[in-house]
Design a protein that fits this description.
Elements: E1 2-6, H1 21-33, E2 39-41, E3 44-51, E4 54-61, H2 68-78, E5 86-92, E6 100-103, H3 112-121, E7 128-132, H4 140-144, H5 150-173, H6 175-182, H7 191-197
Parallel strand pairs: 1-4, 1-5, 5-7
Antiparallel strand pairs: 2-3, 3-4, 6-7
Length: 198
């Protein structure tokens, strides 16, 4: 059993904001699986899916970001899942838009959702997939709660798809293989990335 947690804020006013990128990736995983409807439990939306024959629970905490850990702790306890089998998907101000970083441990980096999860689980040895949203030019709080720029909106489906691919590799092949495949400078189709790949 694996648990994938997408972080975000509940409510229509936050749905399309940068801070809800984790929700967007979990929604993509749910869409791909064609699984059943989500159910409300542990102050979260939970949906059980199957990926290549493996059971996966998708979790979208419905508390606000800084209380996300409560839902993660209760869900992982209920399903008896070790911390190493929990993947948290979050937005990251310090990565350029579209870049991804998968790690098995480390600090919360100032992300309130990760901070809450680490506090509730009593450890920061929790796999996390950070997806870059860019820092922008203003205050951090303003940036994370803003919508994507028009050019980012065009590339967003590709970014979400790449992150969902990464989560799928983590499910089926484990952390190390997923890190080798997923840690990129950017998933956005830029000339710089094309030159690097070549």
């Amino acid at each position: 059993m694996k648990v994938i947690v997408g972080l975000g804020n509940p409510g229509r006013e936050y749905a399309a904001t940068r801070h809800n990128l984790g929700f967007m990736v979990v929604d993509e995983l749910a869409r791909r699986s064609g699984g059943g409807s989500a159910k409300s439990r542990f102050k979260a939306e939970l949906q059980e899916i199957t990926v290549n024959g493996l059971r996966v629970v998708l979790v979208k905490p419905q508390t606000y970001m800084n209380l996300s850990g409560h839902a993660v702790r209760e869900a992982s306890s209920w399903y008896k899942v070790p911390k190493s089998n929990v993947l948290v998907i979050v937005d990251d101000l310090d990565l350029p838009f579209g870049a991804m970083r998968l790690r098995g441990n480390g600090s919360h980096g100032g992300h309130n959702g990760l901070r809450s999860i680490f506090e509730q689980l009593g450890s920061n040895d929790v796999p996390r997939l950070r997806i870059g949203i860019g820092r922008g030019h203003g205050v951090a709080v303003t940036q994370v709660l803003s919508r994507f720029a028009p050019e980012e909106e065009q590339q967003l489906p590709e970014v979400i798809s790449a992150a969902a691919d990464c989560a799928t590799v983590w499910i089926t092949d484990g952390l190390i293989t997923a890190m080798n495949r997923c840690n990129t400078k950017s998933t956005a189709p830029t000339k710089e990335a094309a030159a690097t790949d070549g």
